[in-house]
Amino acid sequence: MPVGLTRDAGWEIGVSRTLHQPPQAVWEFITGPEGVALWLGAEGPLPAEKGAPYRTADGTEGEIRSYRPGGRIRLTYGPSTVQVTVTPGSSEGRAVLRFHQERLASAAEREERRTHWKGVMDRVAAGLG
């Protein structure tokens, strides 16, 4: 099976980075208005209730599937699913931020989303200072 193709969730991609910020600061940023605009393209803050709808500036609609404060958001994004997690890094004052997207249609879409998420990660890191 090709890299990125799963039996159950189609094509998927994950991008992660260790940031020189405490996990709580990263979480507050990515769930606040500025962070939500950077990674999702929606006006924030993001709703925290399971089943709550959202709409991005480009018209993509979805809903919150799960929301674990301080740690994980899982939401639909059109026909795909996006999960965002924040975990403690290997040393104090660091956090690992991960974006994972599944149910992609093809290897080409997987590569497009890889480029997208790497750019998002760069913008989030810059936004955190």
Automatic annotation (TrEMBL):
Q: Which Pfam families match?
A: AHSA1 (PF08327)
Every Activator of Hsp90 ATPase homologue 1/2-like C-terminal domain range: 22-126
Which InterPro entries does this UniProt record tie to the protein? ASHA1/2-like_C, START-like_dom_sf
Question: What CDD domains does UniProt report for this protein, alphabetically?
Answer: SRPBCC_CalC_Aha1-like
| Taxonomic superkingdom | Bacteria
Return the protein name.
SRPBCC domain-containing protein
Lineage summary: Bacteria, Bacillati, Actinomycetota, Actinomycetes, Kitasatosporales
Name the family.
Answer: Belongs to the AHA1 family.
